[in-house]
Input
Amino acid sequence: MKPTDAAHLKTLEDRLLWLSHWMIHHANHIRPKEDGIKVGGHQASSASMVSIMTALYFSALKPADRVAVKPHASPIFHAMQYLMGNQTLDKMQNFRGFGGVQSYPSRTKDVDDVDYSTGSVGLGVAITAFGSIVQDYISAKSWGKGLTLGRHVALVGDAELDEGNVYEALQEGWKNDLRNCWWIIDYNRQSLDGVVREGLFERIEKIFEAFGWNVIRVKYGALQRAAFLEAGGEALRAWIDACPNQQYSALTYQGGAVWRKRLMDDLGDQGAVTALIEKRSDDDLAALMENLGGNCVSTMADVFASVTDDRPTCFLAYTIKGWGTPIAGHKDNHGGLMTKNQMADWQKRMGVPDGEEWDKFATVADTAGLQNFLDKTPFFAKGRRRYSDDVLPVPAIALSSDREISTQMAFGKILDDLSKGDSDLAERIVTMSPDVTGTTNLGPWVNRRKLFARKAQADAFIEHRIPSTAKWEFTPDGQHIELGIAEMNLFLLLGAAGLSHSLFGKRLIPIGTLYDPFVVRGLDALNYACYQDARFMVVGTPSGVTLAPEGGAHQSIGTPLIGMSQDGLAAFEPAFADELATIMEWAFGYLQRDGAGDPDERTWLRDETGGSVYLRLSTNPVEQPGKRPDEDWRQGAIDGAYWLRKPGPNCEVVIAYQGAIAPEAIRAAGAIAEHRRDIGVLAVTSADRLNAGWTAAQRARAHGQFEATSHVERLMQTLPRHCKLVTVIDGHPATLSWLGSVHGHQTIPLGVEHFGQTGTINDLYRHFGIDADSIIGKINGLTPGRSMAVSRNEPQ
Output
């Protein structure tokens, strides 16, 4: 490295340290507060990363590289973007305020160039591995040739290594021949509640090495390495290596005089070591002892430059938490902040004049030279690195059947039909599943489109002519990524693949399948993927107690409510094959939309913005409706509901159902119709979209748009006031229980509220009171009118 470049890096390190900490200080101690609550901002966690990030961004990265920044290093990231002109002063001054710089880097909320959102620790680390796998997937395809391969880099807080999903990702990376991935660990040995235990790094290194990673320990900075070459230096190195983490942190906080006393007490009777210590002032001694590898910008730049291959690499960078600030080393500094007096003293030490706190180049002597260095920094040379790709045309998707079929089987047939064609959409579909490919009906798709691997691998069963329904051929052209049984990995891969158009300029249509109850197991990663605005389709199947023989551990209850509450995810639960086909055709377009946020005044849904889609399906074959009397149902299935049986003018009871429970609702309605007037049956395909449109229309009316009417309001507006609603779902009854609030109708919600067990479908439907006879029994007991006979007793 040129001496001038090293000097510029050191200047940038100082600038980023100051700007990040001033931004936090301003938010907590200067900006007026309405509620008096601490704003926070993690000064110490930012300081420990400043040297690493300065070296990484300004000496190592190229435009094709992508970075997930440690959540608590967000202030350093935004200070850097501010310095480069990609972040505004107004937003910096409004750090952690409404519309200001976000607490943690956000692709959707921040205006600067965030590659991967972070916040929930561990997830940002792992997604870089999956981002690299997606990069390899794209580059292996004919339509992805010429893609510049970049490194996917995670800036990792050492406490993030406590998260189990990190190790799940390491294993998956090994299985997929991971490359071009760097994880840079900020090993400051302090977490929120204390100091990390001794010897942890040895275990960390062994884990990474076991999965084929190159591990580089960066323990000593340039000052320390130079001191080790002096007489007595080896004794100093041995003392540093033997010093417990807690002691090192405490001595750092107390400063040079205390360092001197402790070193002299431990090493001072050795002449050479005594001379090494005594030749340095207190400040110089403190600088030496705190010059760990991760806090030395030139050391980090040299280490990054030394890695020239594509092997996954872990950098274990030793740092001081709070480095360079008055709170360095204190065990309470994770959530601590510099006081006003500490900041005033530190400002003088940093040489920042009063009134120039926000000046990008305050304290910089050679502003022209620094600006020239910044202008030539490769990573920032191409500006904001957000790409796009053309929208893929969606072929017509139709599937109707006169025989019984389950929605899961229909899903498999739809994908199989797509696999037989040559549409651009089918070419960009990539499926994935955590060891449940065959049992979620992806098998036919995989047999035709094969599995992805960078190097071709033959199927031994095919070679030996052993009969099997699964033709598992791995090839670079394959369009299915098989995962181990870890749902967090599924959602992280969906998240990475769902950002492909933005990260790589090549659009993918990711489809992931898993057993519906295990949506919960990957829920944090699902939320994380949606927060990034990744675009994907996730299929939860089988679902509910309808999966009767599997018992309570495999029977989902609350997933419909997850679908309703998860932002960025449109949730559907169709009952019939033609509904599913219609929804999937719409969904393939919805995944690709990126329009304005104005709602559609027909539904009051923001469909033009697009999003991801969740399909909750079932393995239970149900009788299909056959030829429909009209086409109104088709748009209704997309909007969330339609009348399967339209209510008459004097309707006494409406049965509203969602999903595989449809046959029970239909049978109950047929029996009731012999005794009650004008019965209606409402087929709900998406309680999520119905509810979202309804609440959006209410907000619009509250703001003066008095004509705003949602789809569900129009559907139910002709029901007489005395009409009763019975809602039923193989899931939590709260999913549909709100329907009565739309126009003030008494509602009887039926569903599943407790863990299931093994049995037949009829056993469990009867046990939970969601079979046809139970529906009739509820209507008999809770609504006025003639009673109807039931064929069996309702469960008590």
In short: The two ends are 79 Å apart (CA to CA). The CA atoms of residues 487 and 521 lie 6 Å apart. The mean pLDDT is 92. The longest strand covers residues 181-187.
